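Session log. Operator J.P. requested a structure for one protein chain; no other inputs attached. Running the standard single-chain path with token output.
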Amino acid sequence: MKKYSHLFLIFLLIFTLTACAAKADPPVTKLAKASRETADKAQNLYTNDELSFSFVIPDSWEAENYKPVVSIATTQDGTKYTKVDFVFQSDKDNPLLSVMAVPKGSWGKIKKGEALAPVFLGTKGDVVYCYSLPASCPYDIGAKADLYNSMFLLQEDVPKRFSIIGGNSSLEAISTVEGVVQEGSMHTLMITADDGRTLAFAKDVADKTYMDKGIVVGSKVKINYQGTINGTNTGKVNIINVEKIK
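Structure written below.
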């Protein structure tokens, strides 16, 4: 009888240890799953340290269907800037998205081509970030067009995925004011705005690198700026550039 009791105790001990081992497996599996999810998130983030920005890749973009291509382009006034095209299946003429880093004075003069007009994203120092999306699917009806459309981005989705890396940056929206130049000295740029206000901007704002050529007294201009103009107080305004209205 004792012999059977000993055997029963041994069997009970083995059963208990096996059950404990089985219960210990799920945390290991969960940890491995978490590690894969972390790796996936890292793979879905495009980072360009040289241009100081990152972009969260949409889940619908499989790696084999797109490729970031960095190139140098030229604005309408001849200024060079850097852009990153997220090319669809090696078709460089039809990117899914273009992100551009443009000198402040020229960001409004990017050649539009077949894409939609560039949209402001943010600033860092003397650089303005903007993006452009395709106006429509460039392919005929079929599997390729279906894939392209499944990867199509909405305008409001891009800013949510975009981040500027490092300090001295701003994602504040750009405002504009139009008017006629009344004074354009070395110290002040003064305009009479369309609403009748007289607005004076400080010397650093009137820096030629921020202004179109040919702006003189009497010129109609558009001033792109960040910040707020309180009445006629422009002290809290950061000028992006000054464009001559033809």
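Operator note: Residues 19-42, 205-209 have pLDDT under 50 and may be disordered.
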